[in-house]
Amino acid sequence: MQTTSGTIWNSLEVAKLVCSVLTPAAIAIFGVYIHRVTKRFEDHQWRSQKLIEKRLTIYDDLAPLFNDLLCYFTYVGCWKELKPPDVVALKRKIDRKIYLAAPLFPKEFFQACQVLQGLCFSAYRGWGMDAQLRTNWGRRKDADTGWLEEWQTYCSDATEVTDPANVKAAYDRVMQVFADSIGVTADHSHVVMGRLPQNIR
């Protein structure tokens, strides 16, 4: 009987001893796990913040260029100040910037930019040839007293001219993707930019 009691007593003591050792160890392991999870979360938050900051910088850089495209191809704002050679140069500048920015944005960003560029320019015309503007050069000539005849070659055929309304819709899509990418959910289709000129195609 005593042996049995002694055995039971020893088993309880061993169990208590094991618990007293394992409990702090379990707490320590759990604490390490929580620390690692918290650290990963903080690192993720930091990277996300830095990514948003970089995207905002890219927006500040690209948005005015896209706005110039919008103005030129929809005949609003500063469109008269932009000449065909300037707009072709603008395409090159935008292309370079969006290709550099693409890895930092979702694929929808690059796709939206490509759609807008495709509506504004007729590219891949031949080796060493510049893209042409998909716009009505005759109407521009009528509105520009300083128009040079050589500028006509910068513009595509009448069959490739893009409807300004389509350019605006593509521009709105680019701005929407920009907004979504920086965590600003907004509908830009309501932005009033004045009435698009009628029958200019």
Q: What is the molecular shape?
A: rod-shaped
Ranges with pLDDT <50 over ≥5 residues?
A: none
Gyration radius, in Å: 32 Å
List the total number of helices. Answer: 5
Q: Averaged pLDDT, please?
A: 82
- Structural class comes to mainly alpha
What does the main sheet amount to? Answer: 2 strands, antiparallel
Summarize it.
The chain has 201 residues and is an all-alpha fold. The protein is built from 5 helices and 2 strands, in the order H-H-H-E-E-H-H.
Brief descriptors of the model:
201 residues; mainly alpha; two-stranded antiparallel ribbon; 5 helices; 65% helix
Topology, please?
Blueprint: H1 2-74, H2 84-101, H3 107-120, E1 121-122, E2 132-133, H4 137-143, H5 164-181
Antiparallel strand pairs: 1-2
Helix pairs in contact: 1-2, 1-5, 3-5
